[in-house]
Amino acid sequence: MLLELDQVHKIFGGLHAVKAVQLRVEAGEIFGLIGPNGAGKTTIFNVVTGVYRPDQGRVLFDGKDISGWSPAQIASAGIGRTFQNIRLFRSMTAEQNVMVAGRRLHSAGLLATILRTASQAECERALRRRAHELLEALGLRSHANDMAGSLPYGSQRRLEIARALMLSPKLLLLDEPAAGMNSQEARELEAQIRWLRDELKVTVVLVEHNMSVVMSVCERIHVVDHGETIADGPPSAIKTHPKVLAAYLGQEEPDES
Amino acid sequence: MSDAGPGLAAPPPPIPALPDPPARPRWGLRALVALGMIGGLALLRLGLEAVLIEYAQRIMMLAGINVILAVSLNLINGTTGQFSIGHAGFMAIGAYAAAFLGTHLAPAAAALFGSGMLADAVTFNLALVFGALLAGLSGLCVGLPSLRLRGDYLAIVTLGFGEIIRISFNNAQFLGAATGYFGDSPAGLPAYTNLFWVLLWVVIVIIVTWNITFSQTGRSLAAIREDEIAAEAMATPTTRLKVLAFSFSAAGAGIAGGLFAHMQAGIRPEDFKFDKSIDMIVMIIVGGLGSVSGAAFGGVFVAVSLELMRDLHEYRLVLYALLLIVIMLVRPEGILGTRELPSIVRGLWQRAGARGASSGGAER
Protein backbone atom coordinates (compact mmCIF):
# COMPACT_ATOMS: atom_id res chain seq x y z
CA MET A 1 0.00 0.00 0.00
CA LEU A 2 1.70 3.19 -1.14
CA LEU A 3 -1.03 5.75 -0.58
CA GLU A 4 -4.10 5.47 1.55
CA LEU A 5 -6.78 8.05 2.28
CA ASP A 6 -8.65 7.02 5.39
CA GLN A 7 -12.07 8.64 5.80
CA VAL A 8 -10.81 12.01 4.61
CA HIS A 9 -13.07 15.05 4.87
CA LYS A 10 -12.43 18.57 3.61
CA ILE A 11 -14.90 21.36 4.26
CA PHE A 12 -14.74 24.89 2.86
CA GLY A 13 -17.29 26.95 4.80
CA GLY A 14 -20.63 25.48 3.76
CA LEU A 15 -19.17 23.31 1.02
CA HIS A 16 -18.37 19.74 1.96
CA ALA A 17 -15.82 19.28 -0.83
CA VAL A 18 -14.56 15.85 0.17
CA LYS A 19 -16.76 13.47 2.16
CA ALA A 20 -15.34 10.39 3.86
CA VAL A 21 -13.21 9.41 0.92
CA GLN A 22 -11.58 6.04 1.31
CA LEU A 23 -8.97 5.36 -1.32
CA ARG A 24 -6.01 3.00 -1.62
CA VAL A 25 -3.28 3.02 -4.23
CA GLU A 26 -0.93 0.06 -4.51
CA ALA A 27 2.72 0.59 -5.38
CA GLY A 28 3.26 0.21 -9.13
CA GLU A 29 -0.30 0.97 -10.13
CA ILE A 30 -1.58 3.42 -12.68
CA PHE A 31 -4.58 4.75 -10.86
CA GLY A 32 -7.30 7.01 -12.22
CA LEU A 33 -9.33 9.48 -10.22
CA ILE A 34 -12.33 10.67 -12.17
CA GLY A 35 -15.63 12.40 -11.65
CA PRO A 36 -17.73 15.21 -13.08
CA ASN A 37 -16.61 18.85 -12.77
CA GLY A 38 -16.50 20.03 -9.18
CA ALA A 39 -16.52 16.50 -7.80
CA GLY A 40 -13.53 17.21 -5.55
CA LYS A 41 -10.73 15.51 -7.49
CA THR A 42 -8.28 18.41 -7.37
CA THR A 43 -9.18 18.99 -3.71
CA ILE A 44 -8.17 15.39 -3.03
CA PHE A 45 -4.82 16.07 -4.77
CA ASN A 46 -4.35 19.20 -2.70
CA VAL A 47 -5.07 17.30 0.50
CA VAL A 48 -2.56 14.59 -0.45
CA THR A 49 0.16 17.13 -1.34
CA GLY A 50 -0.35 19.21 1.79
CA VAL A 51 -1.80 22.33 0.17
CA TYR A 52 -4.90 21.69 2.31
CA ARG A 53 -4.99 19.97 5.65
CA PRO A 54 -7.77 17.37 5.93
CA ASP A 55 -10.50 18.39 8.38
CA GLN A 56 -10.97 14.79 9.38
CA GLY A 57 -9.29 11.51 8.56
CA ARG A 58 -5.73 10.58 7.70
CA VAL A 59 -3.50 10.44 4.64
CA LEU A 60 -0.97 7.61 4.80
CA PHE A 61 1.98 7.52 2.43
CA ASP A 62 4.35 4.59 2.53
CA GLY A 63 3.06 3.70 5.99
CA LYS A 64 3.54 7.20 7.44
CA ASP A 65 0.73 9.56 8.43
CA ILE A 66 1.49 12.66 6.34
CA SER A 67 -1.66 14.65 7.13
CA GLY A 68 -0.56 18.05 8.40
CA TRP A 69 2.88 17.93 6.77
CA SER A 70 3.92 20.95 4.69
CA PRO A 71 3.91 20.64 0.88
CA ALA A 72 7.71 20.79 0.84
CA GLN A 73 7.99 17.94 3.37
CA ILE A 74 5.53 15.83 1.41
CA ALA A 75 7.42 16.50 -1.83
CA SER A 76 10.69 15.52 -0.15
CA ALA A 77 9.05 12.35 1.13
CA GLY A 78 8.45 11.32 -2.48
CA ILE A 79 5.19 12.68 -3.87
CA GLY A 80 5.56 14.68 -7.07
CA ARG A 81 2.72 16.50 -8.77
CA THR A 82 1.72 18.53 -11.77
CA PHE A 83 -0.92 21.24 -11.78
CA GLN A 84 -4.23 21.54 -13.56
CA ASN A 85 -3.43 25.12 -14.54
CA ILE A 86 0.21 24.78 -15.49
CA ARG A 87 2.42 26.31 -12.83
CA LEU A 88 5.88 26.48 -14.32
CA PHE A 89 8.54 29.01 -13.34
CA ARG A 90 7.77 30.90 -16.50
CA SER A 91 10.73 33.22 -16.82
CA MET A 92 13.26 30.52 -16.04
CA THR A 93 14.62 28.10 -18.63
CA ALA A 94 13.30 24.55 -18.94
CA GLU A 95 16.57 23.25 -17.53
CA GLN A 96 16.36 25.57 -14.51
CA ASN A 97 12.75 24.58 -13.91
CA VAL A 98 13.76 20.95 -13.61
CA MET A 99 16.88 21.66 -11.56
CA VAL A 100 14.88 23.53 -8.89
CA ALA A 101 13.24 20.25 -7.88
CA GLY A 102 16.61 18.54 -7.43
CA ARG A 103 17.19 19.63 -3.87
CA ARG A 104 17.72 16.06 -2.72
CA LEU A 105 20.62 15.64 -5.13
CA HIS A 106 22.25 18.84 -3.93
CA SER A 107 24.03 18.36 -0.63
CA ALA A 108 26.33 21.40 -0.71
CA GLY A 109 25.67 23.90 2.07
CA LEU A 110 25.48 27.67 2.01
CA LEU A 111 29.15 28.26 2.75
CA ALA A 112 30.12 25.87 -0.05
CA THR A 113 27.79 27.83 -2.35
CA ILE A 114 29.34 31.18 -1.45
CA LEU A 115 32.88 29.84 -1.84
CA ARG A 116 32.06 27.79 -4.97
CA THR A 117 33.84 24.73 -3.63
CA ALA A 118 34.56 21.59 -5.61
CA SER A 119 31.74 19.71 -3.88
CA GLN A 120 29.30 22.45 -4.84
CA ALA A 121 30.45 22.37 -8.47
CA GLU A 122 30.00 18.59 -8.40
CA CYS A 123 26.44 18.95 -7.08
CA GLU A 124 25.62 21.45 -9.81
CA ARG A 125 26.99 19.09 -12.44
CA ALA A 126 25.01 16.16 -11.07
CA LEU A 127 21.85 18.25 -11.04
CA ARG A 128 22.32 19.43 -14.59
CA ARG A 129 23.10 15.92 -15.81
CA ARG A 130 19.94 14.50 -14.21
CA ALA A 131 17.86 17.42 -15.49
CA HIS A 132 19.10 16.79 -19.03
CA GLU A 133 18.29 13.08 -18.77
CA LEU A 134 14.73 13.90 -17.79
CA LEU A 135 14.34 16.59 -20.45
CA GLU A 136 15.63 14.13 -23.01
CA ALA A 137 13.28 11.41 -21.80
CA LEU A 138 10.27 13.70 -22.18
CA GLY A 139 11.36 14.93 -25.58
CA LEU A 140 12.33 18.40 -24.42
CA ARG A 141 16.05 18.26 -24.96
CA SER A 142 16.12 20.91 -27.66
CA HIS A 143 14.14 23.24 -25.38
CA ALA A 144 16.57 23.02 -22.44
CA ASN A 145 17.60 26.67 -22.70
CA ASP A 146 14.22 28.09 -23.72
CA MET A 147 12.10 30.05 -21.28
CA ALA A 148 9.43 27.78 -19.84
CA GLY A 149 6.72 30.36 -20.51
CA SER A 150 7.57 30.44 -24.21
CA LEU A 151 7.17 26.69 -24.80
CA PRO A 152 4.16 25.31 -26.66
CA TYR A 153 1.35 24.08 -24.46
CA GLY A 154 1.99 20.37 -24.77
CA SER A 155 5.68 20.87 -24.04
CA GLN A 156 4.81 22.84 -20.94
CA ARG A 157 2.73 19.93 -19.66
CA ARG A 158 5.62 17.54 -20.30
CA LEU A 159 8.04 19.95 -18.63
CA GLU A 160 5.87 19.85 -15.51
CA ILE A 161 6.20 16.07 -15.51
CA ALA A 162 9.97 16.28 -15.96
CA ARG A 163 10.19 18.74 -13.11
CA ALA A 164 8.14 16.51 -10.80
CA LEU A 165 10.31 13.51 -11.74
CA MET A 166 13.39 15.44 -10.57
CA LEU A 167 12.12 14.83 -7.03
CA SER A 168 12.75 11.11 -7.66
CA PRO A 169 9.20 10.51 -6.46
CA LYS A 170 7.65 7.18 -5.57
CA LEU A 171 4.24 8.60 -6.38
CA LEU A 172 3.35 11.01 -9.14
CA LEU A 173 0.06 12.90 -9.17
CA LEU A 174 -0.92 14.16 -12.60
CA ASP A 175 -3.73 16.71 -12.64
CA GLU A 176 -5.39 16.61 -16.07
CA PRO A 177 -2.21 15.87 -18.04
CA ALA A 178 -4.12 15.53 -21.32
CA ALA A 179 -6.03 18.80 -21.03
CA GLY A 180 -5.74 20.74 -24.25
CA MET A 181 -3.95 17.97 -26.12
CA ASN A 182 -5.09 16.63 -29.48
CA SER A 183 -5.63 12.90 -29.93
CA GLN A 184 -2.12 12.37 -31.32
CA GLU A 185 -0.52 14.10 -28.30
CA ALA A 186 -2.85 12.23 -25.95
CA ARG A 187 -1.69 8.89 -27.37
CA GLU A 188 1.93 9.92 -26.83
CA LEU A 189 1.03 10.88 -23.29
CA GLU A 190 -0.39 7.40 -22.69
CA ALA A 191 2.94 5.90 -23.77
CA GLN A 192 4.82 8.30 -21.52
CA ILE A 193 2.68 7.44 -18.49
CA ARG A 194 3.26 3.71 -19.03
CA TRP A 195 6.96 4.43 -19.44
CA LEU A 196 7.03 6.28 -16.11
CA ARG A 197 5.63 3.26 -14.38
CA ASP A 198 7.54 0.56 -16.25
CA GLU A 199 10.97 2.17 -16.47
CA LEU A 200 11.09 4.62 -13.59
CA LYS A 201 8.94 2.45 -11.26
CA VAL A 202 6.82 5.44 -10.36
CA THR A 203 3.28 4.88 -9.17
CA VAL A 204 0.96 7.20 -11.07
CA VAL A 205 -2.34 8.69 -9.98
CA LEU A 206 -4.08 10.81 -12.57
CA VAL A 207 -7.09 13.05 -12.63
CA GLU A 208 -8.34 13.21 -16.20
CA HIS A 209 -11.42 14.11 -18.18
CA ASN A 210 -10.24 12.52 -21.39
CA MET A 211 -12.00 9.15 -21.01
CA SER A 212 -10.10 7.40 -23.78
CA VAL A 213 -6.82 8.17 -21.98
CA VAL A 214 -8.21 7.11 -18.61
CA MET A 215 -9.72 3.87 -19.89
CA SER A 216 -6.66 2.87 -21.87
CA VAL A 217 -3.95 3.67 -19.35
CA CYS A 218 -5.47 3.18 -15.88
CA GLU A 219 -5.57 -0.20 -14.21
CA ARG A 220 -7.92 0.88 -11.49
CA ILE A 221 -10.28 3.81 -11.35
CA HIS A 222 -11.83 5.62 -8.44
CA VAL A 223 -14.92 7.69 -9.17
CA VAL A 224 -16.05 10.58 -7.00
CA ASP A 225 -19.12 12.77 -7.28
CA HIS A 226 -20.07 15.64 -4.97
CA GLY A 227 -17.05 14.74 -2.83
CA GLU A 228 -18.14 11.16 -2.26
CA THR A 229 -16.84 7.88 -3.59
CA ILE A 230 -19.35 6.29 -5.94
CA ALA A 231 -17.27 3.51 -7.46
CA ASP A 232 -13.83 1.90 -7.45
CA GLY A 233 -12.64 -0.85 -9.74
CA PRO A 234 -11.05 -1.78 -13.07
CA PRO A 235 -12.00 0.22 -16.19
CA SER A 236 -14.30 -2.49 -17.49
CA ALA A 237 -16.39 -2.41 -14.32
CA ILE A 238 -16.38 1.40 -14.16
CA LYS A 239 -17.64 1.73 -17.75
CA THR A 240 -20.87 -0.08 -16.92
CA HIS A 241 -21.26 0.92 -13.26
CA PRO A 242 -24.80 2.33 -12.90
CA LYS A 243 -23.83 5.06 -10.44
CA VAL A 244 -21.04 6.26 -12.70
CA LEU A 245 -23.33 6.37 -15.70
CA ALA A 246 -25.87 8.25 -13.60
CA ALA A 247 -23.28 10.77 -12.44
CA TYR A 248 -22.00 11.45 -15.95
CA LEU A 249 -25.16 11.07 -18.00
CA GLY A 250 -27.90 11.82 -15.49
CA GLN A 251 -30.47 9.48 -14.06
CA GLU A 252 -33.85 8.45 -15.29
CA GLU A 253 -36.70 9.40 -13.03
CA PRO A 254 -37.93 6.24 -11.24
CA ASP A 255 -41.61 6.92 -12.00
CA GLU A 256 -40.92 7.20 -15.70
CA SER A 257 -39.48 3.72 -15.97
CA MET B 1 8.02 19.87 -31.73
CA SER B 2 10.07 17.63 -33.91
CA ASP B 3 11.61 16.01 -30.86
CA ALA B 4 8.26 15.28 -29.19
CA GLY B 5 6.59 11.96 -28.72
CA PRO B 6 9.43 9.58 -28.09
CA GLY B 7 8.55 5.93 -28.29
CA LEU B 8 9.00 5.81 -24.59
CA ALA B 9 8.97 2.07 -24.25
CA ALA B 10 12.71 2.37 -24.86
CA PRO B 11 15.02 2.78 -21.86
CA PRO B 12 16.14 6.31 -21.09
CA PRO B 13 18.56 7.56 -23.72
CA PRO B 14 22.26 8.04 -22.97
CA ILE B 15 23.37 11.03 -20.97
CA PRO B 16 23.75 14.03 -23.26
CA ALA B 17 26.97 16.00 -23.29
CA LEU B 18 27.03 18.70 -20.65
CA PRO B 19 27.06 22.26 -21.83
CA ASP B 20 29.65 24.36 -20.08
CA PRO B 21 30.56 22.24 -17.03
CA PRO B 22 31.61 24.38 -14.06
CA ALA B 23 35.35 24.26 -13.66
CA ARG B 24 36.90 22.76 -10.54
CA PRO B 25 38.07 25.58 -8.34
CA ARG B 26 41.80 25.93 -7.91
CA TRP B 27 42.43 27.51 -4.55
CA GLY B 28 46.02 28.55 -5.25
CA LEU B 29 44.93 30.42 -8.35
CA ARG B 30 42.05 32.01 -6.49
CA ALA B 31 44.34 33.24 -3.71
CA LEU B 32 46.64 34.70 -6.35
CA VAL B 33 43.77 36.46 -8.07
CA ALA B 34 42.53 37.81 -4.74
CA LEU B 35 45.99 39.14 -3.86
CA GLY B 36 46.40 40.64 -7.29
CA MET B 37 43.00 42.29 -6.96
CA ILE B 38 43.83 43.76 -3.56
CA GLY B 39 47.08 45.10 -4.94
CA GLY B 40 45.27 46.46 -7.97
CA LEU B 41 42.62 48.15 -5.85
CA ALA B 42 45.30 49.71 -3.62
CA LEU B 43 47.06 51.09 -6.70
CA LEU B 44 43.76 52.24 -8.15
CA ARG B 45 42.99 54.10 -4.95
CA LEU B 46 46.34 55.86 -4.95
CA GLY B 47 45.91 56.73 -8.62
CA LEU B 48 42.38 58.04 -8.18
CA GLU B 49 43.31 60.04 -5.11
CA ALA B 50 46.18 61.64 -7.02
CA VAL B 51 44.03 62.52 -10.01
CA LEU B 52 40.60 63.33 -8.60
CA ILE B 53 39.57 66.17 -6.36
CA GLU B 54 38.12 65.19 -2.99
CA TYR B 55 34.60 65.94 -4.15
CA ALA B 56 34.85 63.44 -7.01
CA GLN B 57 36.36 60.84 -4.71
CA ARG B 58 33.46 61.30 -2.36
CA ILE B 59 30.95 60.74 -5.14
CA MET B 60 32.79 57.58 -6.15
CA MET B 61 32.61 56.30 -2.59
CA LEU B 62 28.91 57.13 -2.39
CA ALA B 63 28.39 55.33 -5.68
CA GLY B 64 30.20 52.28 -4.29
CA ILE B 65 28.04 52.31 -1.16
CA ASN B 66 24.97 52.59 -3.39
CA VAL B 67 26.15 49.59 -5.36
CA ILE B 68 26.39 47.53 -2.16
CA LEU B 69 22.93 48.66 -1.10
CA ALA B 70 21.36 47.97 -4.47
CA VAL B 71 23.02 44.59 -5.04
CA SER B 72 22.03 43.37 -1.58
CA LEU B 73 18.47 44.70 -1.82
CA ASN B 74 18.12 43.05 -5.22
CA LEU B 75 18.64 39.63 -3.64
CA ILE B 76 15.34 39.89 -1.77
CA ASN B 77 13.34 42.28 -3.98
CA GLY B 78 14.57 41.19 -7.39
CA THR B 79 15.66 37.57 -7.19
CA THR B 80 13.22 36.38 -4.52
CA GLY B 81 10.43 38.79 -5.47
CA GLN B 82 9.57 39.79 -1.90
CA PHE B 83 8.98 43.49 -1.77
CA SER B 84 10.93 44.97 1.14
CA ILE B 85 11.00 48.75 1.63
CA GLY B 86 12.82 49.00 4.93
CA HIS B 87 16.38 48.61 3.73
CA ALA B 88 17.43 51.96 5.23
CA GLY B 89 16.64 50.52 8.67
CA PHE B 90 19.23 47.77 8.23
CA MET B 91 21.69 50.31 6.86
CA ALA B 92 21.15 52.39 10.02
CA ILE B 93 21.81 49.40 12.26
CA GLY B 94 25.05 48.66 10.41
CA ALA B 95 26.06 52.32 10.50
CA TYR B 96 25.48 52.80 14.21
CA ALA B 97 27.02 49.45 15.14
CA ALA B 98 30.13 50.05 13.04
CA ALA B 99 30.47 53.63 14.26
CA PHE B 100 30.12 52.55 17.88
CA LEU B 101 32.53 49.64 17.64
CA GLY B 102 34.98 51.59 15.46
CA THR B 103 35.12 54.32 18.12
CA HIS B 104 35.54 52.00 21.08
CA LEU B 105 37.82 49.43 19.48
CA ALA B 106 40.37 51.96 18.23
CA PRO B 107 42.29 52.35 21.54
CA ALA B 108 42.55 48.58 22.02
CA ALA B 109 43.71 48.06 18.43
CA ALA B 110 46.24 50.85 18.81
CA ALA B 111 47.62 49.16 21.92
CA LEU B 112 47.94 45.86 20.05
CA PHE B 113 49.18 46.94 16.63
CA GLY B 114 50.53 50.43 17.25
CA SER B 115 48.77 53.36 15.62
CA GLY B 116 49.32 52.67 11.97
CA MET B 117 47.46 51.40 8.91
CA LEU B 118 47.25 47.88 10.32
CA ALA B 119 45.44 48.96 13.48
CA ASP B 120 43.02 51.05 11.42
CA ALA B 121 42.38 48.21 8.99
CA VAL B 122 41.69 45.72 11.78
CA THR B 123 39.42 48.09 13.68
CA PHE B 124 37.53 49.16 10.60
CA ASN B 125 36.89 45.71 9.20
CA LEU B 126 35.88 44.29 12.56
CA ALA B 127 33.50 47.21 12.91
CA LEU B 128 32.07 46.59 9.43
CA VAL B 129 31.62 42.87 10.03
CA PHE B 130 30.03 43.57 13.41
CA GLY B 131 27.61 45.98 11.73
CA ALA B 132 26.82 43.41 9.05
CA LEU B 133 26.20 40.68 11.63
CA LEU B 134 23.94 42.89 13.70
CA ALA B 135 22.01 44.01 10.62
CA GLY B 136 21.77 40.41 9.39
CA LEU B 137 20.53 39.29 12.79
CA SER B 138 17.84 41.96 12.83
CA GLY B 139 16.96 40.87 9.31
CA LEU B 140 16.46 37.37 10.69
CA CYS B 141 14.27 38.68 13.51
CA VAL B 142 12.12 40.77 11.17
CA GLY B 143 12.06 38.15 8.44
CA LEU B 144 11.01 35.14 10.51
CA PRO B 145 7.52 36.40 11.35
CA SER B 146 6.96 38.69 8.37
CA LEU B 147 8.11 36.59 5.42
CA ARG B 148 5.06 34.40 5.87
CA LEU B 149 3.19 37.42 4.57
CA ARG B 150 2.95 38.12 0.87
CA GLY B 151 3.05 41.15 -1.36
CA ASP B 152 1.78 44.39 0.11
CA TYR B 153 1.74 43.08 3.67
CA LEU B 154 5.47 42.43 3.67
CA ALA B 155 6.07 45.91 2.27
CA ILE B 156 4.02 47.44 5.10
CA VAL B 157 5.83 45.44 7.78
CA THR B 158 9.29 46.32 6.45
CA LEU B 159 8.27 49.97 6.09
CA GLY B 160 7.14 49.97 9.72
CA PHE B 161 10.32 48.26 10.80
CA GLY B 162 12.50 50.87 9.10
CA GLU B 163 10.65 53.63 10.92
CA ILE B 164 10.90 51.82 14.28
CA ILE B 165 14.66 51.57 13.86
CA ARG B 166 15.03 55.23 12.98
CA ILE B 167 12.88 56.36 15.90
CA SER B 168 14.75 54.05 18.27
CA PHE B 169 18.03 55.69 17.31
CA ASN B 170 16.33 59.06 17.63
CA ASN B 171 15.76 58.26 21.28
CA ALA B 172 18.91 56.31 22.15
CA GLN B 173 20.79 58.72 24.45
CA PHE B 174 24.07 56.78 24.39
CA LEU B 175 24.09 57.07 20.58
CA GLY B 176 23.48 60.80 20.64
CA ALA B 177 19.71 60.63 20.04
CA ALA B 178 18.44 63.15 17.50
CA THR B 179 21.70 65.13 17.47
CA GLY B 180 23.45 62.16 15.97
CA TYR B 181 26.41 60.02 16.93
CA PHE B 182 29.86 61.57 16.60
CA GLY B 183 31.96 59.09 18.52
CA ASP B 184 33.90 60.13 21.60
CA SER B 185 36.43 62.54 20.22
CA PRO B 186 35.59 66.13 19.26
CA ALA B 187 36.88 65.38 15.75
CA GLY B 188 33.93 63.05 15.21
CA LEU B 189 33.98 59.47 13.96
CA PRO B 190 37.32 58.08 12.77
CA ALA B 191 37.41 58.53 9.00
CA TYR B 192 38.42 55.00 8.03
CA THR B 193 36.50 54.81 4.78
CA ASN B 194 38.52 55.38 1.62
CA LEU B 195 38.21 54.29 -1.98
CA PHE B 196 40.18 51.10 -1.37
CA TRP B 197 37.87 49.77 1.33
CA VAL B 198 34.74 50.78 -0.54
CA LEU B 199 35.87 49.07 -3.73
CA LEU B 200 37.06 45.98 -1.85
CA TRP B 201 33.70 45.57 -0.11
CA VAL B 202 31.84 46.23 -3.35
CA VAL B 203 33.78 43.33 -4.88
CA ILE B 204 33.16 41.05 -1.88
CA VAL B 205 29.43 41.79 -1.77
CA ILE B 206 29.07 41.30 -5.53
CA ILE B 207 30.95 37.98 -5.47
CA VAL B 208 28.91 36.61 -2.55
CA THR B 209 25.63 37.75 -4.10
CA TRP B 210 26.61 36.43 -7.51
CA ASN B 211 27.54 33.01 -6.14
CA ILE B 212 24.28 32.77 -4.24
CA THR B 213 22.22 33.95 -7.22
CA PHE B 214 23.76 31.49 -9.67
CA SER B 215 23.44 28.33 -7.61
CA GLN B 216 20.74 25.92 -6.50
CA THR B 217 19.90 28.42 -3.74
CA GLY B 218 19.47 31.23 -6.25
CA ARG B 219 17.36 29.06 -8.56
CA SER B 220 15.14 28.18 -5.61
CA LEU B 221 14.81 31.87 -4.69
CA ALA B 222 13.82 32.68 -8.27
CA ALA B 223 11.33 29.79 -8.18
CA ILE B 224 9.73 31.37 -5.11
CA ARG B 225 9.38 34.61 -7.07
CA GLU B 226 7.92 32.83 -10.09
CA ASP B 227 5.38 30.62 -8.32
CA GLU B 228 5.55 30.00 -4.61
CA ILE B 229 2.99 27.17 -4.61
CA ALA B 230 4.85 25.27 -7.32
CA ALA B 231 8.17 25.91 -5.56
CA GLU B 232 6.79 24.33 -2.39
CA ALA B 233 5.42 21.37 -4.32
CA MET B 234 8.97 20.87 -5.64
CA ALA B 235 10.34 20.45 -2.08
CA THR B 236 11.66 24.00 -1.76
CA PRO B 237 11.71 25.15 1.88
CA THR B 238 10.27 28.53 0.93
CA THR B 239 10.11 30.26 4.30
CA ARG B 240 13.64 29.25 5.24
CA LEU B 241 15.03 30.46 1.94
CA LYS B 242 13.15 33.74 2.08
CA VAL B 243 14.46 34.42 5.58
CA LEU B 244 17.96 33.51 4.43
CA ALA B 245 17.81 35.90 1.48
CA PHE B 246 16.35 38.62 3.68
CA SER B 247 19.12 38.23 6.28
CA PHE B 248 21.85 38.32 3.65
CA SER B 249 20.25 41.34 2.12
CA ALA B 250 20.14 43.07 5.52
CA ALA B 251 23.78 42.18 6.21
CA GLY B 252 24.78 43.80 2.92
CA ALA B 253 22.94 46.96 3.92
CA GLY B 254 24.80 46.79 7.24
CA ILE B 255 28.15 46.85 5.47
CA ALA B 256 27.05 49.79 3.36
CA GLY B 257 25.96 51.55 6.55
CA GLY B 258 29.35 50.97 8.18
CA LEU B 259 31.19 52.35 5.17
CA PHE B 260 28.85 55.32 5.11
CA ALA B 261 29.29 56.03 8.83
CA HIS B 262 33.07 56.16 8.69
CA MET B 263 32.94 58.54 5.75
CA GLN B 264 31.31 61.24 7.84
CA ALA B 265 32.12 63.02 11.02
CA GLY B 266 28.86 61.71 12.42
CA ILE B 267 25.61 59.95 11.59
CA ARG B 268 22.11 61.11 12.39
CA PRO B 269 18.86 59.16 12.46
CA GLU B 270 17.52 61.32 9.66
CA ASP B 271 20.23 59.98 7.32
CA PHE B 272 18.19 56.76 7.23
CA LYS B 273 14.71 58.02 6.57
CA PHE B 274 12.09 56.31 4.47
CA ASP B 275 13.14 58.18 1.30
CA LYS B 276 16.55 56.49 1.58
CA SER B 277 14.79 53.12 1.23
CA ILE B 278 12.90 54.49 -1.75
CA ASP B 279 16.22 55.59 -3.33
CA MET B 280 17.41 51.99 -3.09
CA ILE B 281 14.22 50.70 -4.71
CA VAL B 282 14.76 53.22 -7.50
CA MET B 283 18.31 51.92 -8.03
CA ILE B 284 17.25 48.34 -8.56
CA ILE B 285 14.24 49.17 -10.68
CA VAL B 286 16.21 51.54 -12.93
CA GLY B 287 19.01 49.02 -13.32
CA GLY B 288 16.75 46.03 -13.94
CA LEU B 289 15.01 44.08 -11.20
CA GLY B 290 16.53 40.65 -10.71
CA SER B 291 19.90 41.36 -12.31
CA VAL B 292 23.04 41.72 -10.17
CA SER B 293 24.74 43.79 -12.87
CA GLY B 294 21.61 45.90 -13.24
CA ALA B 295 21.50 46.66 -9.53
CA ALA B 296 25.15 47.69 -9.54
CA PHE B 297 24.53 49.91 -12.55
CA GLY B 298 21.47 51.45 -10.88
CA GLY B 299 23.49 52.26 -7.75
CA VAL B 300 26.07 54.18 -9.75
CA PHE B 301 23.39 55.79 -11.91
CA VAL B 302 21.46 57.20 -8.95
CA ALA B 303 24.59 58.52 -7.21
CA VAL B 304 25.95 60.19 -10.32
CA SER B 305 22.70 61.56 -11.74
CA LEU B 306 21.71 63.12 -8.40
CA GLU B 307 25.14 64.70 -8.16
CA LEU B 308 25.15 66.02 -11.73
CA MET B 309 21.88 67.77 -11.09
CA ARG B 310 23.01 69.40 -7.85
CA ASP B 311 23.24 72.86 -9.48
CA LEU B 312 19.51 72.76 -10.13
CA HIS B 313 18.89 72.96 -6.37
CA GLU B 314 15.32 72.07 -5.46
CA TYR B 315 14.39 71.47 -9.08
CA ARG B 316 16.66 68.47 -9.25
CA LEU B 317 14.12 66.20 -7.60
CA VAL B 318 11.60 67.26 -10.21
CA LEU B 319 14.01 66.47 -13.01
CA TYR B 320 15.02 63.24 -11.28
CA ALA B 321 11.39 62.14 -11.09
CA LEU B 322 10.91 63.03 -14.76
CA LEU B 323 13.98 61.00 -15.67
CA LEU B 324 12.58 57.99 -13.81
CA ILE B 325 9.23 58.34 -15.56
CA VAL B 326 10.96 58.45 -18.93
CA ILE B 327 13.02 55.36 -18.11
CA MET B 328 9.92 53.48 -16.99
CA LEU B 329 8.09 54.46 -20.19
CA VAL B 330 10.96 53.59 -22.52
CA ARG B 331 12.36 50.57 -20.71
CA PRO B 332 9.93 49.31 -18.08
CA GLU B 333 12.14 46.30 -17.39
CA GLY B 334 15.04 48.56 -16.33
CA ILE B 335 18.12 49.49 -18.25
CA LEU B 336 19.68 46.02 -18.19
CA GLY B 337 16.43 44.09 -17.73
CA THR B 338 17.13 40.69 -16.20
CA ARG B 339 20.32 40.24 -18.19
CA GLU B 340 23.76 40.00 -16.63
CA LEU B 341 26.94 41.66 -17.81
CA PRO B 342 28.76 38.48 -18.91
CA SER B 343 25.90 37.40 -21.16
CA ILE B 344 25.60 40.92 -22.60
CA VAL B 345 29.32 40.99 -23.36
CA ARG B 346 29.13 37.52 -24.89
CA GLY B 347 26.18 38.62 -27.01
CA LEU B 348 28.06 41.69 -28.27
CA TRP B 349 31.13 39.58 -28.93
CA GLN B 350 29.15 37.06 -30.95
CA ARG B 351 27.38 39.79 -32.88
CA ALA B 352 30.72 41.41 -33.67
CA GLY B 353 32.11 38.03 -34.69
CA ALA B 354 29.11 37.34 -36.92
CA ARG B 355 29.46 40.73 -38.56
CA GLY B 356 33.19 40.14 -39.08
CA ALA B 357 32.56 36.81 -40.75
CA SER B 358 29.47 38.32 -42.47
CA SER B 359 28.02 34.85 -42.53
CA GLY B 360 24.87 35.75 -40.57
CA GLY B 361 25.62 33.08 -38.02
CA ALA B 362 22.48 31.54 -36.59
CA GLU B 363 22.99 32.39 -32.95
CA ARG B 364 19.66 31.68 -31.29
Keywords:
heterodimer, A: 257 residues, alpha/beta, six-stranded mixed sheet, four-stranded antiparallel sheet, globular, B: 364 residues, mainly alpha, disordered N terminus, disordered C terminus
Mean pLDDT of chain A: 89
Structural class of chain B: mainly alpha
Q: What string gives the helices and strands of chain A in order? A: EEEHEEHEHHHHEHEHEEHH
Q: Average pLDDT of chain B, to the nearest integer?
A: 83
The proportion of strand residues of chain B reads under 5%
State the low-pLDDT regions of chain B, or none.
1-19, 359-364
What portion of residues of chain A belong to β-strands? 15-25%
The general outline of chain B is: globular
Q: Which shape of chain A, going by the Cα principal axes?
A: globular
- Main sheet characteristics of chain B: none
Number of helices in the DSSP assignment of chain B: 13
User: Greatest chain-chain interface?
Assistant: A-B, 67 and 45 residues
The parts of chain A where pLDDT drops under 50 for at least 5 residues are none
- What is the radius of gyration of chain A computed over CA atoms, rounded to a whole number of angstroms? 20 Å
DSSP strand count of chain A:
10
> For the report, how would you describe the main beta sheet of chain A?
6 strands, mixed
Work out the number of β strands of chain B. Answer: 0
The value of Rg of chain B in angstroms is: 23 Å
What oligomeric state best describes the polypeptide chains here? heterodimer
